[in-house]
Amino acid sequence: MSCPYAETLLPVLGRRGFVMAKKKSRILYIKQFLEEQTDEAHPATINDIMLYLSDKDIPASRKTIAQGIDMLIDAGVDVVCNKSRSNEYFFGERHFEIPELKLLIDASQASRFLTAKRSRTLIDKLLALTSRYQAESFANGLYLSQQVKSKNETAYISADLLLTAINTKHRVRFMYYEYTPDKKKKYKHKRRIYEFSPWAFVWNNDSYYIIGHSENHGKDISFRVDRIAAPKLTDIPAVPAPKDFNLADYVKSVFQMYDGKMLDVTLKCENAMMKTIIDRFGEDVKTNIADPKHFYAKVSVSASKTFYGWIFGMDGAITIESPDEAVDAYKAMLIKAKTFVPE
Predict the structure, then answer these.
(1) What's this model's pTM, rounded to 2 decimal places?
(2) ω into residue 242 within 30 of 0, thus cis?
(3) Residue 249 falls inside a structural domain
(4) Residues 311 and 282 reside in one and the same domain
(5) From CA 136, how far away is CA 117, in angstroms rounded?
(6) Where are the alpha helices (DSSP H) in 241-301?
(7) What is the DSSP letter of 273?
(8) Contact call for residues 188 and 162 (beta carbons, < 8 A)
């Protein structure tokens, strides 16, 4: 096999320069081979590397390959040598360790924000970061067909534009849609154009949100990225986030329970519910013992339908102790739902 660029390179480099270029590319091909074809369980000999280079029409000898490996090691590439009758080499430390790569692949696979096509593309890129043997073992465990996935291919593009807006500190304009009872898209407020200053992304409950300031609402608000339509980047400077804006606090108070009036609520919980309270409100949540079977948790929440629905889902294991405003709102919600409320 001959180099396809030989006729172009020879007049420019000359015979000697062309040979030097081939020698330099040899090191890159050695690195490529070790990255793609080896791991701890699948080391390769110098003979294996020679065959690979021969297929690429790269001149090499045992000596030049050994020299190339030494140069890679000197440059900081983690090439590991197993000392044996015939030295065996494999690519050691990579950008991601196997458990890290597994987590990223699983997250991409499970993400409802990404379409099946986008998930597959992203997973393929992640698999390219390891050896073909490890990639094959990962691929055998992938199962995308039954996952609930987004069908909105443009959400990925919207996320990219919003990230650009955050980095350049500019506003964006877009429309926003919801669904009708017959599952048709319906643009909110008759195709109203929202003007928005994005500050940060948040992943919550399998959905991707953008947080920032909405000119239309006159306040800080969040939008689901996959519900954004026809986004456009403007030249208008974004409204900066307040100096006291804390993303973690925002997520705890608004995102986890959605938008409603902020209240300091005391919850009475069965002892077995401690992990549920910590999962929802964090390890810093204030608690104290109520009786041998219960404890109190004092939390600051957005008192919304979502919060009351969460309480209802606890089936009496978590109840609202105070304030009366929250207790009365919860009872009214139950009555409206035609649910029996004991006196």
Answers:
(1) 0.60
(2) no
(3) no
(4) yes
(5) 19
(6) 247-250, 274-281
(7) G
(8) no
Q: What is the CATH number of the domain that holds 271?
A: 3.30.70
Cα–Cα distance measured from residue 109 to residue 144, given in angstroms and rounded to the nearest whole number: 7
- Element holding 102 (H helix, E strand): helix 98-110
Shared domain check, 87 and 62: yes
Q: Residue 281 has what pLDDT?
A: 81
**Look-up: residue for tokens 């081979």?**
33
Q: Do 42 and 81 touch, CB atoms closer than 8 A?
A: no
- Which helix or strand (DSSP H or E) is residue 98 part of? helix 98-110
Does residue 265 sit within a domain? Answer: yes
Q: Are residues 11 and 72 in the same domain?
A: yes
In sequence order, the 6+-apart residues with CB closer than 8 A to the CB of 121 are none
**SS3 for 57?**
coil
- From first CA to last CA, the distance across the chain in angstroms is 88
Longest Cα–Cα distance in the chain:
97
Tally of domains in the chain: 4
Statement: residue 326 has pLDDT above 70 = yes
Residues 289 and 318 in one domain: yes
Q: What is the pLDDT of residue 110?
A: 76
Nearest to 307 by CA among 329, 338, 287: 329
The two tokens of residue 274 are 């401690």
The domain of 31 spans: 6-91
CATH number at residue 233: 2.30.30
Calculated CA dihedral for residues 105, 278, 325, 264, nearest 10 degrees: -100
Same domain, 13 and 81: yes
| Residue 288 β-bridge partners | 296
Q: What angle do CA 15, 59, 70 make, to 5 degrees?
A: 110
342 assigned to some structural domain:
no
**Which pLDDT tens digit goes with each residue over 117-161?**
888 888 889 988 889 888 888 776 665 544 556 677 788 889 999
- Residue 259 pLDDT exceeds 90: no
Q: Are residues 81 and 119 in the same domain?
A: no
| Residue 152 located in a structural domain | no
